[in-house]
Amino acid sequence: MGFFTKDIKSMEDLLLHGLQDIYYAERQILKALPKMIDKATNRDLAAGLKAHLDETNKQVERLDKVFAKLGKEPSGTQCPAIDGLIEEADATAGEIEDKAVLDAAIVANAQAVEHYEICRYGTLIAWAEKLGHDDIVRFLTTNLNEEKAANTKLNTVALRKGVNAKASNAA
Q1: pLDDT of residue 170
Q2: Contacts of residue 123, Cβ cutoff 8 Å, sequence gap at least 6
Q3: What is the gyration radius of the CA atoms in the chain, in angstroms?
Q4: Is 68 helix (H, G, I), strand (E, B) or coil?
Q5: Largest alpha-carbon pair distance within the chain?
Q6: Single pTM value for the model
Q7: Is 71 left (phi over 0), alpha (psi -120 to 50) or beta?
Q8: Alpha-carbon distance 78 to 104, whole Å?
């Protein structure tokens, strides 16, 4: 089922597709985060990414509950957006030799992922509310709030914990 294909005939179909999209995205993020953690040299950045890895595992568990409440098997559908963000992060990281600059790039790439997730969860909440699926809204809202908090923490690491300052002083 692709976005805006004949397989999506109703708002319910659209909600299910969006859930499959974010489910796929979260599972891809689970694979990508350990690589980012390994490359991060800033202690606060690495710790934040590790904490978010744990959160992401819990987010997938919540999505499993969302699918169960809807009477559906948890499944993902390929999400070119998240694949592209992760691919770009990998490519960028492979091109940067200076560790301070690499940390700044990791923050930026992680924030791009967070912004995608914030957008997706916000939309899913709006659709679920409109369709009367109040039983899944709290799970989605918890995930959304964690994504927003992760983005705020990344801002703090970049601006107050010195990642951007160190990168700007690199050769």
Answers
A1: 77
A2: 18
A3: 17
A4: helix
A5: 56
A6: 0.92
A7: left
A8: 28
pLDDT band at residue 7, thresholds of 50, 70 and 90? confident
CA distance 149 to 10: 32
Q: What long-range pairs does 138-144 form, CB within 8 A, spacing at least 24?
A: 139/62, 139/63, 139/65, 139/66, 139/69, 140/62, 140/66, 142/62, 143/59, 143/62, 143/63, 143/117, 144/118
**Phi-psi region for residue 4, left (φ > 0), alpha (ψ -120 to 50) or beta?**
left
pLDDT in tens, 71-101: 999 999 999 999 999 999 989 888 888 999 9
CB atoms within 10 A of CB 107: 26
Amino acid, res. 72:
K
Cα(128)–Cα(2) distance, integer angstroms: 20
pLDDT at 93 (0 to 100): 84
Domains and CATH numbers, the chain: 11-168 (1.20.1260.10)
Q: Per-residue pLDDT tens for 15-36?
A: 999 999 999 999 999 999 999 9
